[in-house]
Amino acid sequence: MAATPRFRNDADAASDADPHLAPESASTDRKHPVDETLPPLKMFTSGLQHVAAMYAGVVAPPMIVGPAVGLSPKETAFLMGASLFTAGIATLLQTLGFWRIGARLPFVNGVSFAGVTPMVAIGKDRGHDGIAVIFGAIIVASLIGFLLAPYFCKLVRFFPPVVTGTVITLIGVSLLPVAFNWSQGGNAKAADYGSTTNITMAAVTLVIVLALRKLLRGFLQQIAILLGLIVGTLIAIPVGITDFGAIKDADPIGFPTPFHFGAPQFEIAAIVSMSIVMLVCMTESTADMLALGRIVDRPADERTIEGGLRADTLGSAISPLFNGFMCSAFAQNIGLVAMTKVRSRFVVAAGGGILIVLGLVPVAASVIALVPLPVLGGAGIVLFGSVAASGIQTLATAALEKGENALIVAAAVGIGLIPIAAPEFYHSFPKDLLVVLDSGISTGCVVAIVLNLAFNHLGGKPEPEPSEYFLSLPPLPLSLSPPAPMDS
After folding, report:
1. Helix, strand, coil content of the chain in percent (nearest 5)
2. What span, in angstroms and rounded, lies between the C-alpha atoms of 295 and 33?
3. What is the pLDDT of residues 7-63, one digit of tens each?
4. Closest residue by Cα to residue 460 from 468, 451, 469
């Protein structure tokens, strides 16, 4: 039987070290879509769409941590710019990479929200000293994570479809409350939070995005999210929910001076706390890479995950130098890849470049900030829902009718939904445990892995390696349309 030709991978020169990347046929030199470059205009607009989708997620942690540690509004704005700048660096490490660093997938990195609670606890009301201790803890935790990456990536063998499908579904479902919060206005203390105006604006944006996806073709269809955000923002101006204050107060130029808040300080308790956060981030990034690998039809093997985790941890170690926080994968951008069908990692690298520019030019960043949160929330419902849909598609290949696979999914999804459905469920538990328990993705992932080991490995026939699953399965459809019926 003739070998099935594959796309040429830019890493073919190293294929002797990674058999998954070796071409099965020398007759084709066509690049895999992940390694294709697009025309400059398409590259920029598609990259800008990724930035628009993740902008709020990048600036939200510094907006919370800054005031909590006692920084002034101007200093908090500086933290926000630094977070954009370091997110760009981390994204370039992930998409372009060097040596064995970087997943080389269309993978967006930014400030991890998992670290917000422990960072607030570490630095509360300590001012610049609090920020210095946070940065010191992040540096040490990131270096530990970098050293652990070659060993942590071997956990991929415990991520068959029954586990990855569960985790991908939880990623999407866990993100939906974020979209709902944005749709209501984003600030629960604001007078107009949950107002009919905000929710109607989110609904209008949702309808616009869906209509554009249906009516447009080609490249315009691919940037339907970006167009929907622009149209939604324009509609929001006469409605009165667009804030131009950010542009008026923004500086034209603002480089994130290294160690702006002083040299990093190292405290054992803070290091332990942030090391736990790093393990949580590595777990979620592993699941995100497996999800993205399925979506772009380039399954993430151990080497890919090792490179991705090294990029995560190296980006996080560099981040405090420029006054940024711990970086990890942004799952919302996986949904954008699935919707737009644009799989090129260079598009996301262009987004990383845009993030760096935004970090250096605050006035440019403020233009992106013009998008009202209700508008972003309406688009977010589609983006995050598409991630959950990808998880369901993966579960469809997991042979749920065999053994206890359905029970594994039921228990993992049920436990993973606890922080979403009942946020105060673990309120009496120690704060250190809440770093893990408050993340439905992390708890669901751990439960799925443990139950898969118990039911499918211990005392029974082991599950096939993930690579065997993924290489034998057809690629996930890159849209929300149902698959075409199979011919008999």
Report:
1. 65, 0, 30
2. 12
3. 444 444 443 444 344 444 343 457 888 888 888 888 898 888 888 777 767 877 887
4. 451
